[in-house]
Write a structure and sequence with these properties.
By secondary structure, the chain is an alpha+beta fold. It contains 18 helices and 14 strands. The protein has a six-stranded antiparallel β-sheet, with helices on both faces. A four-stranded antiparallel β-sheet has the order 5-3-2-14. It is globular and about 65 Å long.
């Protein structure tokens, strides 16, 4: 029997938020001390390495050791462990699970509009709304320090993101449900809402970056990642970052792996809607390669699959990425889904304004290591636009923080109770300032944790491959 859905009144939802405020005063979100830590970051990172491709783990370590910000990007599990030691509001939304500033960006909607949204869902899981927000604001504090910004400027950037979230969630709280669901940020909306805060020169630069991103499509992917072999398209070899399957395993074992992944791709079609399944079936599978992606994800099994359509100029490149249990699950409980890939896809569909037409999931029952692996699938590139943090002036980073805050609020409003969350946060800046204090304390902690990783690499107890 299906569980009955409750529909409390607006007044009851407001009361829920006020009750949560009594349970956990907003000012207490400022608190962080390493003395409350129960799990050591380096041990947690080593645990993650146990399930990953061994020869790729040193690349992950090297990438995380590049800077405190790079370390922060890869340390979703250690931060989840730290957040779990703190009291929380009890106000639940579908979390991104790794909502740092580099996991937001632009991409193409199915209607071919450039949208700005959350774009990484590997760790998505229902949980306390503030976990996402704390991960986000601390990332801006870490980024501001990495740029050498004055501490007062960095704090203004952090507070801009926190204020944007609070004001946005309160505005969503008074909207009709469908209006919340259809809310999104496209290029025109970005310019209208935030263009005036950065000046004409920066606005023109942003428009050029959007145009450049719109050229980052399947044609660009084919030009960068493929070559012709005896008249047929094949994926390039660029080890260790991109390695065709036959080079990884030799011809005999490569055939087994390729057939396994190919079978998974055929079966993943069942997770697609009928029209999109029909579209996928119009493409012929050509080749497969392992690809190293991201920072925290390095070492998980990620593949790119090459297909051709009407001819060799009509290509489709899909990313087939392993989905492991969310880093949040050991602290918040297991996912409701039997397949980790489905957890990722369902979470993305719930909190993202529009999702890739080829987004789906499947399980490989017996991989080349003899173990099952869950995967999710999407297009490799589709107008991908990423923020260049290293080039952002303070006012631009502040505007970006507002965009991320609004976007995260929209995600939580779609999946959680915006009325209760908005009631909890209130109209004052008490919560904003508490998050600003937390971000400073946690960025201090991040620098200590980063240095610990650098030290064990220098001491030779942890292997790292630098510059890859």
């Amino acid at each position: 029997m299906r569980k009955q859905v409750k529909h409390p009144s607006v007044d009851e939802r407001v009361a829920t938020g006020k009750a949560a405020r009594a349970k956990l005063p907003r000012a207490r979100h400022a608190e962080w001390s390493s003395t409350q830590r129960t799990l050591e970051p380096l041990k947690l990172l080593a645990e993650q390495a146990d399930t990953r491709v061994p020869e790729l783990v040193p690349i992950r370590n090297g990438r995380m050791a590049a800077s405190p910000f790079a370390y922060y990007r890869g340390a979703a599990l250690p931060m989840a462990a730290d957040l779990a030691t703190m009291p929380h509001s009890g106000l639940i939304a579908q979390l991104c699970g790794d909502a740092h500033l580099s996991n937001f960006g632009g991409f193409a909607s199915p209607e071919r509009e450039m949208l700005f949204d959350v774009n990484d869902f590997d760790e998505t899981l229902p949980g306390p709304f503030e976990w996402d927000l704390k991960r986000l604001v601390a990332s801006f504090e870490v980024a501001g320090r990495s740029r050498g910004f004055d501490s007062a400027i960095t704090r203004r950037i952090v507070l801009a993101g926190a204020q944007s979230y609070r004001e946005a969630i309160r505005s969503f709280a008074v909207m009709p449900n469908l209006q919340v669901w259809y809310s999104r940020i496209d290029v025109a909306g970005m310019i209208q809402r935030w263009g005036g805060t950065v000046g004409k020169k920066k606005l023109k630069e942003a428009e050029r970056n959007v145009a450049k991103a719109e050229a980052k499509d399947q044609i660009k992917a084919r030009a960068k990642l493929t070559r012709r072999v005896n008249g047929s398209l094949r994926l390039l070899s660029d080890p260790p970052l991109l390695v065709p399957v036959n080079e990884l395993f030799g011809d005999d074992n490569a055939k087994i792996v390729q057939d396994s992944i190919h079978e998974a791709i055929r079966n993943y079609r069942r997770s697609l809607e009928g029209d999109r399944r029909h579209l996928l079936e119009s493409y012929e599978f050509l080749d497969l390669a392992r690809k190293v992606v991201g920072v925290g994800s390095v070492g998980t099994r990620a593949w790119v699959a090459l297909f051709s359509g009407r001819d060799s100029d009509d290509t489709l490149i899909l990313q087939v990425k392993e989905a492991e249990p969310s880093v949040l699950e050991r602290f918040l409980g297991r996912t409701a889904f039997n397949n980790a890939g489905q957890r990722v896809v369902e979470g993305q569909r719930l909190i993202q304004a529009a999702s890739d037409v080829f987004l789906g999931w499947h399980r490989v029952l017996e991989g080349y290591d003899g173990r099952p692996h869950d995967y999710y699938v999407r297009q490799l590139w589709d107008w991908k636009l990423s923020a260049n943090i290293e080039a952002m002036a303070p006012e631009v980073l502040g505007t970006y923080a507002r965009m991320c805050g609004w976007t995260l609020a929209r995600a939580h409003a779609r999946s959680g109770d915006a009325v209760a969350i908005g009631s909890y946060l209130g109209g004052s800046d008490i919560f904003d300032r508490a998050l600003g204090d937390f971000a400073q304390s946690y960025a201090d902690q991040n620098e200590v944790d980063y240095q610990a990783l650098v030290d064990v690499i220098a001491g030779g107890t942890v292997a790292a491959q630098v510059g890859v």
